[in-house]
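Good morning,

Attaching, inline, the backbone tokens for the sequence recovery test we're adding to the shared suite. The designed sequence is right after.
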């Protein structure tokens, strides 16, 4: 699990409209019986881990117009491709990160940092069932006059590129659906492990699973949602049992790789 989990730089407002998002590694094999009961309820409310495990391909479009990004992810290998029509493709074949037709066609600073930027947030809570991730019950907590069930997410030593990162799910105890998360970013600075941002979800059901219609980023100030920082909306969301052909993720001839 070397580059599959990428992490967001707090306060980063880039061409992705401040789309801070972390990523995690390969497909889980762990049985749900090893999870806290509260996390099992969350997985079930979001469509169930059995349904998630049956799916092999996720695709969605982020944004509209000339900057619309089409994301395609192999859920088993976590290979992925992001395409902005007539501009560039950014992907991974499972080993290399690549940009086509050439490096300068991609407007971001780091293909490696960016290539899976939105998938990890999009696939919550199921990515928290990945190997090396621990979910614990944090009890009830009042936030902005609303009572939430809190689930704390931590990563094992040497899991991904920033195992010191921390995530916390704030769950509606009546529905067991994730309302928002807080997260920290330690990729560039390990001392930031408890300096959180927040992300609030608006869900829809797609092929039996809950998927974000949108999520909005907020500052996390004094244990409360602060100022809104950005928003990401999604369209054409599909979870498929069918697998994408391997050639789809292969490094194109002449592409930049790292």
């Amino acid at each position: 699990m070397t580059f599959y989990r990428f992490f967001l730089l707090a306060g980063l407002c880039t061409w992705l409209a401040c789309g801070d998002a972390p990523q995690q590694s390969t497909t889980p094999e762990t049985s749900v019986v090893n999870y806290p009961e509260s996390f099992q309820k969350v997985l079930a409310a979001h469509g169930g881990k059995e349904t998630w495990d049956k799916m092999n391909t996720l695709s969605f479009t982020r944004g509209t117009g000339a900057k619309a990004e089409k994301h395609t992810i192999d859920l088993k290998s976590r290979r992925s491709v992001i395409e902005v029509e007539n501009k560039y493709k950014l992907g991974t074949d499972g080993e290399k990160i690549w940009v086509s037709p050439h490096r300068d066609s991609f407007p971001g600073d780091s293909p490696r940092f960016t290539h899976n930027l939105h998938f990890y947030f999009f696939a919550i809570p199921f990515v928290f069932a990945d190997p090396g991730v621990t979910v614990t019950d944090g009890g009830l907590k009042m936030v902005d006059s609303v009572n939430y069930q809190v689930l704390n997410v931590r990563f094992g030593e040497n899991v991904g590129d920033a195992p010191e990162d921390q995530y916390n799910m704030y769950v509606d105890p009546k529905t067991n659906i994730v309302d928002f998360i807080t997260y920290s970013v330690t990729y560039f600075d390990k001392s930031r492990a408890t300096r959180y941002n927040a992300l609030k979800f608006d869900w829809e059901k797609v092929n039996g699973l809950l998927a974000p219609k949108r999520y909005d980023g907020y500052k996390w100030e004094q244990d409360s949602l602060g100022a809104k920082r950005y928003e990401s909306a999604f369209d054409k969301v599909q979870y498929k049992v069918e697998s994408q052909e391997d050639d789809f993720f292969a490094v194109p001839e002449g592409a930049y790789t790292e």
